[in-house]
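Q: what does this look like with MTE bound?
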Amino acid sequence: MIIHTDRSAHQHPVGSEITPLSAYRNRRQWMLGAMALGAAGAWSPQRAVAQGVDRPGRLSPISSVPSSVPGARTVEKPTSYRDATTYNNYYEFGTDKSDPARLADKLKTRPWSVSIEGLVGKPGTYDLERLLRLAPMEERIYRLRCVEGWSMVIPWVGYSLAALIREVQPLGSAKYVEFFTLADPDTMPGLRSNVLQWPYVEALRLDEANHPLTLLAFGMYGEMLPNQNGAPLRLVVPWKYGFKSGKSLVRIRFTEKQPATSWNMAAPREYGFYSNVNPNVPHPRWSQATERRIGDDGGLLARRRKTEMFNGYEPQVGQLYAGMDLRRFY
Ligand code: MTE
């Protein structure tokens, strides 16, 4: 994020690749039909083109019900699957937007487990199969606003992180939750760069982590997460800049003191602990007042949209910050 802002913008795929919501719905219906026929593996590019869909992956479908959490389903048009899976920030695989889609197939997502540590009653190793069964999967359609000034709309599949927090029983002294993501030098060439300290670490206040909108995501667009989007599980905190949403989580620690976080350590004046989307507080090197929606007609020349306070989730999360000076706690 410190580097590449302009250059990466030019790598963005053109606006003609938008998938309308109807096509996305058709694709889901088709997938369900294919599964019923036992033909889920029979996806072919030709057939997909005939259906008017853009599904390049062959990931397992993940069933879910529409979320009833207030604010969890924007009616805005989802970004195309193709844009969401080829224009990524996952610095462990490189700093270009196209690096993760190109290189993340090396990531080994099975077996996988998450270590729960710190101030909890039930610490331990939670394997992926157990986490997948912990709570019913919901589909949430969230806006994702990157601190670089672009945004997407992504239909995620997962459940509120609060379900896991309840399960592990935080102690009364726990005030923060720290999220560590995978750092595997054998499969992640980006670790050779010192743009960040590895592993990538992010953290939330416990009440933020417990907010029903904070999502532990296992899938998107009705499929398991593609590697470049953070397989096999990641965080999604829709009212914060995208970098708070750590990918490929391996360790979650409950602490009393506010943890240090990767982007804050790398550039403390630019990236604060809170990093709530806030159009009134500019990044020291650029404004945060507007954003470019990836996939908007016109590509780089498309009209920028106004960025909303807390990314539009103010009715749901504003009270978490009542009385706080958000210029100071950026
Ligand atoms: N998680 C890890 N481990 N490494 C990263 O580089 N990038 C963050 C976040 N999570 C990042 C990460 C940033 S800057 C953004 S905007 C989002 O992931 C992008 O998520 P997406 O590629 O699924 O859109």
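Residues 218 and 233 are 5 Å apart (CA to CA). The chain has a mean pLDDT of 87.
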